[in-house]
Amino acid sequence: MDAKDCIIDGAGKLFRKNGLKSVTMDELARSLGMSKRTIYENFKDKDELIQSCLLKFSTDGLARRNKILDTNNNVYEVMYQFAQLQHQELSGVNPVLFDDLRKYYSDLLAKSKSKSLSNNLKLLERLFKTGIDGQFFNSSSFNVEVASRLIYNSIEFAIDLIDNHKYAPYEVYRTIFYPFFRGISTEKGIGELDKVNERMCGHKK
User: Fold this and answer.
1) CA pseudo-torsion sign 32, 35, 41, 44
2) What CATH architecture applies to the domain 57-201?
3) What is the pTM of this model?
């Protein structure tokens, strides 16, 4: 791992633990056992470092999700694994991090979302096409591109409901996602959807 990757990795861990605002470049340098000068040789300022951390989080998460799709063509199992992965990725993250992003680094957050939009839409389109190929989804019931954009925006909305308005994840899922996916599913798909739904009932929060 070169110096730049090492800095991103170390900063990411500190940000997850303490949030963004409270972490100083001095603290980061101490935790990495390197000089602050070395950090500034790789990043012009803290904003650029945060942007790099957001990009890495997005890129790594996308790679993990594509790998899941590579190994499983049951789209409902895939979505269940996506939900588990989301939980794992966010577990241990100090909620202050998200508050800091919204309050102090909203421009960086917006840029990060803009950069990841295309890749995330491609992932969702791949998911829908896999569902059609596996006869889980009825291709005549919906437009793949429109559905991908709908789900992308619904995920953003769902996260806001859970994080800021304190609705239970299962309640949000049952209200937003379950009716949509049941509506586009074939008889085979509905059977698989209900199996996954039963599993999610056992993990209600």
Assistant:
1) positive
2) Orthogonal Bundle (1.10)
3) 0.89
